[in-house]
Amino acid sequence: MAVDVTGKDNPAQRDAVLAAVGAIREDPAAPHLLADLAASGFYSQFHFHRIFARHTGTTPGRFLTALRMEEAKRLLAHTSETVMSISDRVGYQSLGSFTTQFTRLVGISPGRFRELVDDLAGYRVAEPDLERARAAESRTLGCELRLPAGEASGPPLDDRVSFVGLFNADLPQGGLSGFGIVQGAAGRLVEQRPASGRSEMFLVSLPSDSLLVGLAVGGQAGTLVGRGRTAGRDGAPAELTLRRPDPLDPPVVSAAPAVHLRPFLAGAARRR
C-alpha cells in the first residue's frame, strides 16, 4: 500500500506540526519565525507552511496569534495583572496593538472581557434562560450532533449544552455570521449575517453543570468540539461529530457566545 506523504495521515508531518505548536504554547511571547519552525522539522518554509495549514486548518502566524489571545484571556480571567503586563507577556510591544488585536479577535476589549468573567462567575452553562437566548429569526439552518461511534465521550448529548458559531473565517474568532444553542442532538442555527458562500462552523459542547465562565475563557473539563462547513442548503441540516479536543485544534478565541448569554442570566442561581 502506498504511503501518504502529503496528507494529514502522515505521522512525521503531524509530529513536526505538534512540535511547532508545543514550542508556541511553551512561550507564546517569542517571535516563532516560520524559518525557525520549519527548520526544527527539517522542512523548507514553503512546505512547512502547507503541512501546518493542512493539519491545523490555518497558518502558523494565525495560530500563534490565536494562542496569544488564548493565553491573554486566561491571564485576564485568573490573575490581577494589568493589561499592559499581559500585553508584554504574550508578545506585544505596543499596548495599543494588543488591545486592538484582542478586541478584533475576542470581540470585546480586555477590560470588558474581565467584566464578562466577573458577570459569569458562579453560573452553570444550563442556568441562563436558554429558550430566550435562542434568537428567533426567519433564516435558520438545521444542525444535527452526534458522538463518535463506539466511543465513550462523557455524558450523553441530553446532558450537554452545545454552542455552535458560524464564522466567515478559518478560525473561531471575531464576529459571528450565525449562532445556535443546542441541547440534545439537534437544533437550529440562526444566520444573523448571511454569509456569501459557505461558513465555517465551530462547536464547543459542555456538560450542563460546567461553569459558564469556561465558555468565555476555555479550558473547561469535559469539553467536546466539532467543526464543519455549511453552504446554506435549504432542507439539509449540518452534521457535526463531537470529539475530544486535539492539540492541533486552533483555540476558540471569540467570546461572542458568552457575551450573547450574559443578558439572559436574570433569575439564575449564582454558585460560588
Automatic annotation (TrEMBL):
What PROSITE patterns is this protein classified in?
A: HTH_ARAC_FAMILY_1, HTH_ARAC_FAMILY_2
What SMART domains does this protein map onto?
Answer: HTH_ARAC
The answer, when asked if Acetylation is one of the entry's keywords, is: no
Task: Provide the alphabetized UniProt keywords.
Answer: DNA-binding, Transcription, Transcription regulation
Q: Name one Pfam family in it.
A: HTH_18
Q: Which residues form a coiled coil?
A: none
> Does the UniProt entry include the keyword Transferase?
no
**Domain HTH araC/xylS-type span(s) in chain numbering:** 18-116
> Matching InterPro entries, A to Z?
AraC_XylS_family_regulators, Homeodomain-like_sf, HTH_AraC, HTH_AraC-typ_CS
Signal peptide limits: none
For this entry, the protein name equals: Helix-turn-helix transcriptional regulator
The species is: Nocardiopsis changdeensis
